Amino acid sequence: MNSIGLPNKGLERFIDDDLPRLAGLPVPLVVSVMGFTRDELALLAARVGERDEVALVELNISCPNVETGLVMGADPTEAARAVERVRAACAKPLIVKLTPNASDPAAVAVAAEQAGADALALVNTLRGTAIDPRGTGGAWLGGGAGGLSGPAVRSVALAQVQAVAAASRLPVIGMGGISEPAHALDFLAAGARCVAVGTASFRDPAAAARIAEAIGAARPAGERIEAAATR
Questions:
Q1: Domains of the chain from N-terminus onward
Q2: What pLDDT is recorded for position 230?
Q3: Could you give the CA distance from residue 33 to residue 60 in angstroms, rounded to a whole number?
Q4: pTM of the complete model
Q5: Would you name the residues annotated as active-site residues?
């Protein structure tokens, strides 16, 4: 579980310092943006989307909209408004990353699809907390609550990927607790077109490459991954 937010250098330093270095990697570059208002999201997506180095833009809609108080990704109407605003500002293919902390993630997915998303990514972290072990009864995390990731979320992620893939026609990128090739194959069986590896990479930086190599040899699942990568 983490409660660190999303520390970063800011847009200008990312574009000036990080983007040229990342562009040298032998993979398509996906840049993820998130913000607290629709205008902020649109500005960020427009700036990174205009760069030739960027192949796709990911819109993370897990933050609350400070103008309405609603978490953009938890409400279909809020999600649609955010995606519409970003879609109008960014011509690059747009992946919308969904929060699992919604009462009906499939409804949010359909709203994002209708608003112009090109693909869906899920799940983000689940909301959780930890209690101070010193007996104070207070929260142990600096932010009071945090995001739970890793193996504990895999079953939840699989269920939500399955529901979203059944409800939407868009390609789904599945993630959440994937640390072994068998986990990735489960997500593909649930309807994902490709998978992403996050938490496992902290322990094993080569986890994604190791899993990709293993499932690339597993047919027909490997063929599905290769096809998704060429779209």
A1: 11-130+139-229 (3.20.20.70)
A2: 32
A3: 6
A4: 0.90
A5: 63
